[in-house]
Amino acid sequence: MYQDIINSLNSKDSHFDSILNNVFYFQKTYNPIYKEFLELIGKSALIPQSLSEIPFCPISVFKHHCVQSGQWSNPERIFKSSGTMGARSRHYVRNMELYQTNAQRIFEMNFGPIDNYYFIGLLPNYLENQDSSLIAMVDYFMSSSALGGKYCLNNYDELFEIIERNKLKQIKTILFGVSFALLDYVDDNTHFNCDHLTVIETGGMKKFAREITKSELYETLRKSFSGSMICSEYGMTELLSQLYSIDTPFLKMNDRLRIVITDPIDPMSVLSANQKGRINIIDLANIDSLSFIATDDLGVINDLGELNVLGRIDNSDLRGCNYLI
Question: Domain spanning 98-246: which CATH class is it, in words?
Fold first, then answer.
């Protein structure tokens, strides 16, 4: 069954629903933590008929356990959260190629081939954490693209020159930027007619001096990167998949990652569209760890099935994922 699931994940023709049941059965059988969790809540015999019936395990297990499905050792990589408060989450990655090809697949579903882009990383706080999954993804995009890429850290003069140079040469450019660094940059820099540029903010406002809403962030970035597309990326240490928004705050689902919104107090009460609640994630690419995760994030799904991340659930630990309103 495991190899069948891997083959499906690697296939361009596979679909979410065709993989889901096999992943659930595999993990409830061969993931000791998820198996115990299902037993504790009286769901060990469950055969879910829909997404609304799937139990989601608290994301905190990644802080306190080696979360693993099946028997394997020697992970190729261990992703670690930023650890701004308390214990750090650890995601043991059995197969980095699966992570990389999955990240590329999802990116290209939203933006087209990575070979079409030059990649810039403005991710200073993530670069301090060499075990960051976001850095691993951007590294892979830079090394795989025929056009390459560069991290600018806090060298804003260099960033300005690269954006303007690429505009003159009409080189399509992706700027992955943590939100506080993007705002620091645009305080002193403005670009005009940047139709070659796509800005992808990755969240992260803990180092910014004041609170700002998502709408304010988008408005500020649009003024300073005139003509560019302003997008968002939603991902975290515990996931091998990502969600993207395209010139809107709402994140689009894909064939590897789906969202279920539940009542923050009653985890088995699934909410309808436009109702605010806990974000629960099904990430099929997490086949070697855990695919069914109850996050500490608050969100809402609109009538089009798109996700808007609204913030953190009260009393949950802050962490380096996208928690802007």
Answer: alpha beta
DSSP 213: -
Q: Is 130 exposed, middle or buried (0-12, 13-18, 19+ CB in 10 A)?
A: exposed
| Mean pLDDT within 71-85 | 88
CATH 2.30.38.10 given to domain 2-73+256-312: yes
**Chain position carrying tokens 């960051």:** 132
Q: What is the pLDDT of residue 111?
A: 97
How far is Cα 320 from Cα 83, in angstroms, rounded to an integer? 8
Average pLDDT value for the chain: 91
Residue extents of the structural domains in the chain: 2-73+256-312, 98-246
H/E stretch holding 144 reads helix 133-144
Give CA–CA dist 67/24, Å, rounded. 15
Per-residue pLDDT tens digits for 242-298: 999 999 889 999 999 999 999 999 999 999 999 999 999 999 999 999 999 999 999
C-alpha dist (Å) from residue 281 to 45, 76, 224, 261, 275: 21, 24, 34, 9, 16
* Helix H or strand E encompassing 307: strand 307-312
Distance, in Å, from the CA atom of 28 to the CA atom of 189, rounded to the nearest integer, reads: 52
Residue 94: pLDDT above 90? yes
Please state whether the predicted TM-score (pTM) of the whole model is above 0.85: yes
